Amino acid sequence: MGHNQRTRGDVLIRCGTTGLPRLALTIVPYTAETSPDLPVARAALVVIQDLSPSVVPGFPQYLRGLFELTQKEAELGAVLVSGRSLQYYASQQQVSYETARTHLRNIFQKTATSRQGELVALLNRVLRVSHYTN
User: Fold this and answer.
1) Whole-angstrom Cα distance, residue 102 to residue 83?
2) Given 82, 85, 110, 123, which is the most exposed site by the fewest CB atoms within 10 A?
3) In whole angstroms, what is the distance from residue 121 CA to residue 49 CA?
4) Is the pTM of the predicted complex or chain greater than 0.90?
5) Each residue of 81-123: pLDDT tens digit?
6) For the chain, how far is it from start to end, CA to CA, in angstroms?
7) Helix/strand/coil for 100
8) Residue 46's beta-bridge partner residues?
9) 8-state DSSP, 112
10) What sections of 3-83 are H helices per DSSP?
């Protein structure tokens, strides 16, 4: 490849008001040189990934069945995996922070995790699988 050719372009698009990451844009160029079966001389693959904090509908119910969580515990798990905090959950559910912490401790026990980061990583892996089962 020549020195002026980029092999790939990656751009992070942030929300104008909050500054939070919202989209990841990746552009992968293809040429007849790099892809001999390409029917045109040049093409590009454009991948846009939504980074908004969200979970698939029914995810809390999926968690309930998988880990035998209560409804409130499953709702907390969905809130955490969507990038929100324990304080956010307590505020939204109108429960004390200590009640939210009790739910979190119960989730730790039922998921065999011991730290919030470890729990969120586990739930993210479960979330990817639930996209294909719900």
Assistant:
1) 19
2) 85
3) 19
4) no
5) 988 899 999 999 999 999 999 999 999 999 999 999 999 999 9
6) 44
7) helix
8) 27
9) T
10) 59-67, 71-81
